[in-house]
């Protein structure tokens, strides 16, 4: 949940910072005075940044980071209370759902770089990313039940990332889990000392960015689609995708490079 508001929020141009280097786009939530709470303006800005990197052919990997002492405290509760009314609230939660779906459907892999607490929609944000690396100082919670606002929409992403029993415990109690528990449950891929977080994320992002961007996009899309199918349909679908993949230039180049014991030269096609 969000913290009480303090200073005036940054302008829309600085709410989410964007830095692109060596094919890696880093998006940094930059509303630290409000614990990076997801106001409607914050969500719109992050959505615009994601749409921009999706259209940038030079970007191969996206890293989602945050400034300040909290990764993301969820929805902006002051904003929700100030703008009372079903229609406004529904629009806000639908906007959030669109944002999370965009991350899953983004053509590039998205890595969450979690240095601190991620709660409610902030935990949802982490769970929606393809990969997540957390510092030992990070923690995760869906504490809406504590204030009478059950974390139903965060539960969509969290329940798809961790076992059902743990998801229900988090949702029903609002209790936080530490980074080690999150890693054991599959919410994050690995946990590192806080001082090593930057290097760990940079190394992971660079390894992924070194692969064929066309194959990364195909692979991410295929992974999420086959997860929703039964076993036979999943195998039928992925057989078609593998045959399509074999026809790509980069597959031929990759196999020839492997057989020839040389580095591949990806063309992204």
TrEMBL record:
Keywords in alphabetical order: Fatty acid metabolism, Lipid metabolism, Transit peptide
GO biological process: fatty acid metabolic process
Coiled-coil parts of chain: none
Origin: domain of life: Bacteria
Entry's Gene Ontology molecular function annotations: hydro-lyase activity
One Pfam family from the record: ECH_1
SUPFAM superfamilies reported in the protein's UniProt record: ClpP/crotonase (SSF52096)
Annotated function: May play a role in fatty acid biosynthesis and insulin sensitivity.
Family: Belongs to the enoyl-CoA hydratase/isomerase family.
PANTHER family assigned to the protein according to its UniProt record, in alphabetical order: ENOYL-COA HYDRATASE DOMAIN-CONTAINING PROTEIN 3, MITOCHONDRIAL, PTHR43602
Name of the protein described by the UniProt record: Enoyl-CoA hydratase domain-containing protein 3, mitochondrial
Organism, scientific name: Rhodospirillum centenum (strain ATCC 51521 / SW)
Lineage of source species: Bacteria, Pseudomonadati, Pseudomonadota, Alphaproteobacteria, Rhodospirillales
């Amino acid at each position: 949940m969000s913290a009480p508001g303090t200073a005036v929020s940054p302008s829309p141009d600085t709410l989410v910072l964007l830095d692109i280097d060596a094919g890696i786009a880093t998006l940094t939530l930059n509303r630290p005075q409000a614990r990076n709470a997801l106001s409607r303006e914050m969500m719109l800005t992050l959505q615009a940044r994601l749409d921009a990197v999706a259209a940038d052919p030079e970007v191969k990997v996206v890293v989602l980071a945050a400034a300040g002492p909290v990764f993301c405290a969820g929805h902006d509760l002051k904003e929700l209370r100030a703008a009372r009314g079903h229609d406004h609230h529904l629009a806000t939660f639908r906007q959030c759902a669109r944002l999370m779906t965009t991350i899953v459907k983004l053509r590039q892999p998205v890595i969450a770089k979690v240095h601190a607490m991620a709660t409610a929609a902030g935990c949802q944000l982490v769970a929606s990313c393809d990969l997540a690396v957390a510092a030992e100082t990070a923690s995760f919670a869906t504490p809406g039940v504590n204030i009478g606002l059950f974390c139903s929409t965060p539960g969509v992403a969290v329940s798809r990332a961790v076992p059902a029993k743990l998801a229900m415990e988090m949702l029903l109690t609002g209790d936080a889990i530490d980074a080690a528990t999150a890693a054991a449950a599959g919410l994050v891929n690995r946990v590192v000392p806080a001082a090593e977080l930057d290097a760990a994320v940079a190394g992971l992002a660079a390894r992924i960015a070194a692969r064929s961007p066309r194959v990364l996009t195909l692979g991410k899309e295929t992974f999420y689609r086959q997860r929703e199918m039964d076993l036979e349909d999943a195998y039928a679908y992925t057989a078609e995708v593998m045959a399509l993949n074999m026809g790509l230039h980069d597959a031929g180049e990759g196999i020839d490079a492997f057989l020839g014991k040389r580095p591949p030269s990806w063309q992204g096609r």
